[in-house]
Amino acid sequence: MKKVTVLLASNSLESLYHCLVISMDAKALGWEAKVFVTSNAVVLFTKRRKGRAGTSMGWLATIYIKLRLRRIGVSSTTKMLEEAMKLGVKFYVDEVGLRIAGMGPEDLMEGVDLSGGVSFLKEAAESDVVVTL
Length: 133
What we know:
The protein is of the alpha/beta class. Helices cover 42% and strands 19% of the residues. The chain has one domain (3-132): DsrEFH-like (Hypothetical Protein Ychn, Chain: A). The protein has five helices and five strands; from the N terminus they run E-H-E-H-H-E-H-E-H-E. Strands 4-3-2-1-5 form a five-stranded parallel β-sheet, sandwiched between helices.
C-alpha cells in the first residue's frame, strides 16, 4: 500500500486546508495517510482550536477566504478534519511543540496522538510521498 506523510508546521488556514485535502485525497486513492503536526500548528489539534487557524495575509483575508470557501461549497476546516479522521487519516502532534504552546496531552483533540521527531523520520523514510506545509 502506498503511503503519504504530511509534516504540518504552519497554523495558517491555507496550510491546514491543503494538509487536509492531500491526506483525504490519499485515503480516496487507498493510500495510508499520516499527518505529523509541529511548531505553531499544534494549537490546531487541541480542544481549544476554535479560531486558531489564521492566514499569512491577516484577519481580514481569513474572513474573506472563509466566506469564499463557504460560497463555493467547500467544507470548513473543522468539518474537513472530522471527515479526515473518519476516513482513517492518522494525526500526531509533536510533544515538545505542545509543551511550548503551554499545553499537555489532556488538551489534545480526541483521536490525535502524541509523537516526536524520531517517529516522523521513521514514517517519512517509509513513505512514497512526503509533503511539508
